[in-house]
Structure formats: structure tokens, C-alpha cells
Amino acid sequence: QVQLVESGGGLVQAGGSLRLSCAASGIIFSLSAMDWYRQAPGKQRELVAGITSGGNTNYADYVKGRFTISRDNAKNTVYLQMNSLNAEDTAVYYCYTRPFASGYDYWGQGTQVTVSS
Fold first, then answer.
1. What span, in angstroms and rounded, lies between the C-alpha atoms of 7 and 104?
2. Phi, psi of 62 (to 5 degrees)
3. What pLDDT does 81 receive?
4. Host H or E run for residue 114
5. In three state form, how does the secondary structure of 7-66 look?
């Protein structure tokens, strides 16, 4: 059974930082690309950052230079370090993967990030 469990969200002041974690189980983590998405109220879910099994990363333009995605294959965990947060970053953040050798999409339950201005 595939599970993605996010943690690390919360309330932070503008300019502050948070680190999100997503612990994966039931997949061959080291061979699976992992992504972070977010969804703000009234808006569509959007890609924030992704990391391949080989460690290559990509970012949405609006987080480049502020957010960093990383992974620890020994812990089956992907991280999103978020710095210089602003009110527009307020959203529910989701972990996503289409695991290696799987044709299915999996999402975590989401973690709320609220940035007060």
C-alpha cells in the first residue's frame, strides 16, 4: 500500500521559513521522482518543485531562489525547504509521485502553510 505522509506545515510570518517533509512507503523510493504541489483557496493545484530519482530538480518560477527540494533515499523522504515566505505562498502543500514501474498517481493528504503579512 502506497502512503505519502506530509508534515512540517504551520503558521509563519512573512519572511520566515518552513521545511516540509514527505515520508513515502510502499514504493521503490530511490527510483521514483517526487514532486511538491500546492493549492491555494479558489485556485487550481500547481506544481511547486520536483526532483528526479537522480537528484535533478526543477522549480516553478515563483519559488526559484527561495525554495529548495531535496531527498534522502535512506529515509524514503523528500523535503521542501521554503525561505522568504510571503502571503502568496499560503496554500495546502501536497506531495505527489507516480512511482517507478507504476502507472498510478499518488498524493499525500496535504499540509497547510499559512503566511501572515
1. 23
2. -75, -5
3. 98
4. strand 111-116
5. ECCEEEECCCCEEEEEEEECCCHHHCCEEEEEECCCCCCEEEEEECCCCCEEECHHHCCC
87 three-class SS: helix
Q: Which three cell numbers stand for residue 99?
A: 512511482
Question: How confident is the prediction for the chain on average, in pLDDT?
Answer: 97
d(CA 107, CA 26) in angstroms, rounded, equals 13
The grid cell for 110 is 496535504
Distances (CA, A) of 62 to 3, 58, 74, 89, 105: 28, 12, 30, 9, 25
Side-chain half-sphere CA neighbours of 47 within 13 A: 11
pLDDT tens string, the chain, 117 residues long: the values are 999 999 999 999 999 999 999 999 999 999 999 999 999 999 999 999 999 999 999 999 999 999 999 999 999 999 999 999 999 999 999 999 998 888 899 999 999 999 998
Kindly report the length of the chain. 117
